[in-house]
Design goal:
single chain; alpha+beta; Pseudouridine synthase; ten-stranded mixed beta sheet; 11 helices; 10 strands
């Protein structure tokens, strides 16, 4: 597989919604060919070397993000300190620039809001995790490189707690009365464990499919789900795959209200999906646990 194609399909968290041409330019900037075979390139580096090469690609992409001042962005900020911003992202706002979205994204607004204090060493304008365009709720953003590396480590080690609430089109018969705190404390006991693999849907490349058996280069996926009302679901994700909740619920036979991509197969991005990040916790660089809950 071509290097540029591999990065686009397997590193969405690292490169955001960058276009193929942007990724190709970034690859050339570090002295590699976009058309080079991914496995041969990987063989040239040890693991650390390949991670460093990928980091240089993402830094290059970040430089193309233009700062944009938004009068609304400040009202989305829930908490800010020297290291992080926590925002309540509205539904319908894109997180990272991409094809057809060069401006009006969270990344543009971050650079515009921070202005001269923006740290040019951070990748993807400080974004360490993403929410789909139609999804709302809590996001944490790094304001400096040290904070970004620390947060990235916490996400990789699955020490960041993330809980989402979804309203589904269908109704379920069996429900469990549980608050967010109760679910967080006993998710392994009261939640349904949904574990398997996620890959691109070969019938519709805009969405992913969840399967119990690994096919090709599918990535592992783990979620815990509890139905707290006839059409309300709480989901705790242990991995952070693109469309993980939407694809996992689809596998179980449920679709989220407003999610036309997964319920009807429509290619246009839904502006308001009834899916929201309602709980987020992480540890700051001083060792203090930060908790945000709706």
């Amino acid at each position: 597989m071509r290097l540029d194609k591999y990065l686009l399909e397997n590193n969405s968290q690292e490169i955001g919604n960058a276009s193929r041409s942007q990724v190709a330019k970034a690859i050339k900037k570090i002295g590699l060919k976009p058309s080079a075979d991914f496995e041969k390139v990987q063989d040239r580096f040890d693991l650390k070397g390949f991670e460093n090469a990928l980091s240089e690609v993402t830094k290059s992409i970040s430089q193309w993000i233009q700062p944009q001042v938004s009068k609304d962005f400040e009202s989305w900020i829930v908490q800010e300190d020297d290291d992080t911003l926590v925002i309540n992202k509205p539904h319908g706002v894109v997180v990272h620039p991409g094809i057809g979205n060069d401006e009006g994204t969270i990344a543009n607004y971050i650079k515009g809001y921070l202005g001269d204090s923006f740290d040019p060493e951070v990748e993807r304008a400080g974004i360490v995790h993403r929410l789909d365009k139609g999804v709302g709720g809590f996001m944490v953003i790094a304001k400096n490189r040290s904070s970004q590396l620390e947060l990235k480590k916490q996400f990789e080690e699955h020490t960041v707690d993330k809980i989402y609430k979804a309203i589904i089109d269908q109704e379920v018969e069996s429900t469990i009365e549980a608050s967010i705190e109760q679910f967080l404390e006993g998710f392994e006991e009261i939640g349904e464990r949904v574990e398997g693999f996620i890959r691109r849907d070969p019938q519709n490349r805009k969405r992913n499919i969840f399967e119990k058996v690994k096919v090709g280069k599918a990535k592992s996926s783990l979620s815990f789900i509890v139905f707290t009302d006839v059409n309300e679901v709480l989901v705790k994700i242990e991995t952070g795959r693109m469309h993980q909740i939407r694809a996992s619920l689809k596998y179980l036979g449920y679709t989220i209200k407003g999610d036309d991509l997964y319920s009807k197969g429509k290619l246009g991005g839904s502006l308001n999906i009834s899916l929201e990040s309602v709980y987020l916790s992480f540890t700051d660089r001083n060792g203090k646990k930060k908790i945000f809950k709706k």
